[in-house]
Every structure is written in structure tokens, then in C-alpha cells.
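CO-FOLDING WORKSHEET

Operator: S.A.
Ligand of interest: pyridoxal-5'-phosphate
Run index: 426
Mode: holo prediction, single chain
Checklist:
[x] sequence pasted
[x] SMILES validated
[ ] output reviewed
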Amino acid sequence: MNFQSASRAQLEAAEAELAQQYQAHQSSGLSLDLTRGKPSTEQVELSSSLDGILAGNYISEEGVDLRNYGGLDGIPGMKRLFAETFSIDVSRILIGGNSSLTLMYQSALFALQFGLGGEGSAWNQESGEVKFICPVPGYDRHFSVCEHLGIKMIPVAMDENGPLMDEVESLIKADPMIKGIWCVPRFSNPTGCVYSDEVVDRIAALAGIAGNNFRVFWDNAYAVHILDDEAKELADVFVSAKKHGTEDSVLIFGSTSKVTFAGAGVAFMAASSSNLAAFKRHLGFSSIGPDKLNQQRHINLLKDATGFKAHMTQHAAILKPRFDIVEKYLIEGLAGSGIASWLKPQGGYFVSFDSEPGLAKQIVAMAADAGVKLTPAGATFPYGHDPKDANIRLAPSYPSLEEIEQAMAIFVVCVKLATVRKMLNA
Ligand SMILES: Cc1ncc(COP(=O)(O)O)c(C=O)c1O
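OUTPUT RECEIVED:
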């Protein structure tokens, strides 16, 4: 039924029926969780052979004893593996510890405090408040990095092609203290969109119109997390940056957190040689080197880009049925209702759902009362504030298929009931 064109009597009848369904769900005592964007146990088990895979061989291909100190920017084999898989020149890669978020946090901290562009390039040496563009909805932990470092966040909306670039460019032209932009360019968290070629090119060009030392934080966390073989490809941001003479503005990040073990994977960053040199100089004060044995374990398991891809196909086989259930419930329950919108992702970990304005918090609370935990409304916006109170992030990777079925049935009832009640009270 299209709620927008329904008569009052139809809405009242729908309300009565939905209220009954909701009460039935409430009394069934379920405890379900759609909040966690983490791999399921089945997925992490794909990499269980990492344990013991070295079988006592601790010497790298280059003859380095991996048990000892050193190798601040990673071992060559791990750099090659990421370089091949992500189509990045190997000379640009630095291997970190287990977390790309740590590399992003360190990059922002170093750029703010010390500068990545040589003497006098620290953002906090300029007078004025440092700011970042934050495409929304986005990844809450990017926003926490900014909040923690005292960087002011400026939200900019996205569509299916990525951030709205006219707005991004006019903000950046008007304010040289905008020093960065967060981007999750392929299977964005949470909308699932893949930035269009034009958006990638315009982002790569931003440093040409920005103030000094502008950096693009290109968090390619989901680049290889494909659900659909026909998934849209992402243009190469370094190629565009080279064309625009802005190579120093691009910092790329990624990891195997959702490839192997989320808590014990390997992370990388890729950047120009001058960015890498500056980053390493600062990094060297806090570490003598990362866990090289874990890097070698990953080389042994994944081998090369082909092995990496084959491994991701196994993940897709586990994840796709979960996303299919979410899509099925949204289509069957809400398509044509005029009260909800979402994008069907071709990869990544999330479905981003928009309710009628002013209802997201209420829907999340109603779902909680009926035993379904959802990501708090607003979490996908800077400072936890969604001005429309409409966006809800659904994360179906972790629960079982049966749990997702139950959770989605309840979610759809909550969306409809909250909306019908709002319409009746309007
Ligand atoms: C966009 C994005 N970037 C980074 C991360 C975390 O990556 P890592 O585990 O490598 O720190 C996540 C995890 O959910 C994410 O969604």
C-alpha cells in the first residue's frame, strides 16, 4: 500500500493491524542484533589456517628473520600483495599493524601536529580552526577521530555517485582551513555507493583549489568486498591526482580486517614518497616495527591478487544470502509505500535506510523494545546528529540467516507503524 496516497480510514486500519503485529513481536522475547559491521564466525573461519601456517619458517624470502625487530614500513612480500590486489605502485605502500583506522588516526594526528609536507606544514600552526569535509551518512569512527583531535566537521550530502561535489568545491574554495575530506569510495559505509569516475577525478583535483596541505583520506576499506560480480569498478585516484599535479594530497588506506581476522589482520597505507617519508619519521618514535610474522602468515595464506580474490569470493558466498534477506524484506514490506528509501549495495557491509524525516530515533527505539538492536540513529553523522533524523544503518553480516529474517520482519513493522502513527497525528 502507498501510505502517502492512502485515506485516513485506510491508515487507521493499517495502524490497528500493525499495532497487533508489533505487540506479537514484543511478546515473543527475541534478542537480535543488527548493529555490528563485523564478519561472522563462518567468515573468520575461512582464515583459520593462519594459525600454524608458518610451520617454524621464520625467515622471509629476502632472508630476514621475521622474529626480530625492524622493518618499520613492512616486508616486501606484504607490500607486493597489497600493491597487486589494490593496483597501486608497490613503492607507495607502507604496511602498518592490524588496523587501518590506526593509520588514519596517526596520519591526521601527524598532519595536525607536525605536518606531512615539510617544515611549517602542520595544520595547527595556521591561525584558524582546522576543518574536514565529512560526506554523510558516513563512518562514525572517522567522525570520532576528528572530534578527538578537535577538527571541526562539515557534513556534505552524498548521492549514488558519492559526495555532492559542487558543494564540496564551493566550501573548500571559500575556506583554506578545510584541510581534509573523508572518503569511503567503493561500497561506502553505510550507503554502499561507488564513487563515479567524475567524482573521483574532482576529489583528486581538490588540492588545487584548497588551502595548503590539504589531504584526501581515501579509506578504501571495502574495495575488494564484492557481493555482485557486476559491481561497479572504482577509478584510480592516483592516476587523476597525477594528471592534476596533486599526488601529495592523496592518502589511501585499507586492511585485511574483513578478509582474514578482524582483530588480527594487516593494514596498509599508500601515498606519495614525500608523505611516506614524513609519516615514517613520526611513526619511528612510537614503534621499532610492526608484526612481520603476521604479514608472512598473510602472504602464505593469500599468496597473490588471484588468491586474494578467490578468498573474497568465499566471503561473498556467506554474505550475499544475508544481504538478499534484507533486500527481500525491504522490497516486500516497503517498496512502493512512499515512506522509505535505500540503495541496494553491490558490496561492503551495510544497507543504508532512510525513513520519513523525524522517525529514525523512534524506529530504532521501537525495534529495541521488540528485541532488535539497531545502530543508534544519528551515528552515521558528525556529532551523532542527523538533522533529518531519517538514516538507519543496517548491518547484516554477523547474525545468522534466521536471525536476519526475524529482525527484518520486526524492522519493517516498526517502520510502517511509526510512519502511520505520524501521519495520523499530523
Ligand atoms: C569505512 C571503514 N574504515 C575502516 C574500518 C576499520 O578498519 P580496520 O579494522 O582496518 O581498522 C571500518 C570498519 O568497520 C570501516 O567501516
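REVIEW:
The mean pLDDT is 97.
Residues 37, 99-101, 139, 184, 189, 219, 221, 255, 257, 267 surround pyridoxal-5'-phosphate (CB under 6 Å).
[x] output reviewed
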